[in-house]
Structures are given as structure tokens and as C-alpha cells.
Design goal:
It is built from 7 helices and 2 strands. It has about 160 residues and is mainly alpha-helical. Strands 1-2 form a two-stranded antiparallel ribbon.
């Protein structure tokens, strides 16, 4: 089979999906395939679909957008996976939101809570009082009372 753009033998056979039950087959030689795949298509050349050209222009514009604070471009983030500064989250919000939802399931970072974190305000105030009493017992050298207070504090922290 010969290349559809020139008369060399076709070595690549590309099937483009244009829509539901619409396909376009291209038979190209290696040089024409490189031009087709890697060079931007010109207005005179038939694009795969009318929308494809506008999508590529939109993607190119997005990739050239950059953060005014650190100067990182969105294409650099896509290549490295790292943002340049905290302002990038706001600058690239539209693109990052679906990405974060897909990866983390949420767009807000909740973090972890310490295992020994008091569950309620009442428990927290009780712990503060017990710790103050523990300091007083240690200062008075009442080590038996201090040991009891220490144990109470430990059980409250673990529950």
C-alpha cells in the first residue's frame, strides 16, 4: 500500500475515531506520519475533526499560561508533577480541581488527627486540670498522687 500523501510505501496505518461509528483510516509513510503526528496542522490541511483543532489551540493556550508569582507554566507542572508556589493552586484552579478530585477523592486537605487528641472540649478541660494538679503534686513531692494523676491522664488520652 502506498502513502496517501506521497508515493512512498505506507508503513503506518492510523485509524482516527471521529465520532460514534465514524472512522478515518490513514496510510502514511514514516516521514508523512511524523509530520502528521508531531507538527501542528495548517489551515489548508484537513483536520481529523473540526473540534480537534480548537481543542489543540485551547490546550496550547493553557500550557502557555503561567503563574505571575513564580513563573511556572502549566505544561511544566504537567511534565514534573510539581507546582512552583502556593499561588499556583489558585492560578491553575480549573485544571487542578478535577485532577485532585481524581487522585485524592477530595479537593480539601483534611490531614490526620493525632491518636491522643481529646475527643471533646470537656475531656480537654479535664486533661488541663489533671496536668496542673500533676505539676502541683510533683512540686509538693507527693509522688503517689502524681502517679495516680499520670495514670488518669494516660487513660483519658487513650480513650
Amino acid at each position: 500500500m502506498k502513502c496517501q500523501k506521497c508515493h512512498n510505501p505506507a508503513t503506518l496505518h492510523i485509524t482516527e475515531v471521529l465520532g460514534e461509528s465514524q472512522f478515518e483510516e490513514l496510510h502514511l509513510c514514516e516521514q508523512c506520519a511524523n509530520k502528521y503526528l508531531y507538527e501542528p496542522q495548517k489551515a489548508g490541511v484537513k483536520s481529523v475533526a473540526g473540534e480537534a483543532l480548537s481543542e489543540s489551540e485551547e490546550t496550547a493556550a493553557l500550557n502557555q499560561r503561567e503563574c505571575p508569582h513564580c513563573g511556572i507554566k502549566f505544561v511544566e507542572f504537567r511534565n514534573t508533577g510539581r507546582l512552583g508556589c502556593p499561588h499556583d493552586y489558585q492560578e491553575f484552579r480549573e485544571e487542578l480541581t478535577p485532577l485532585l478530585e481524581n487522585i485524592h477523592g477530595e479537593t480539601r486537605h483534611c490531614g490526620k488527627t493525632p491518636r491522643r487528641l481529646p475527643q471533646s472540649k470537656q475531656t480537654q478541660s479535664e486533661l488541663i486540670q489533671l496536668r496542673n494538679r500533676l505539676k502541683q503534686a510533683i512540686n509538693k513531692e507527693d509522688y503517689e498522687e502524681a502517679a495516680k494523676l499520670r495514670d488518669k491522664i494516660k487513660t483519658l488520652e487513650e480513650s
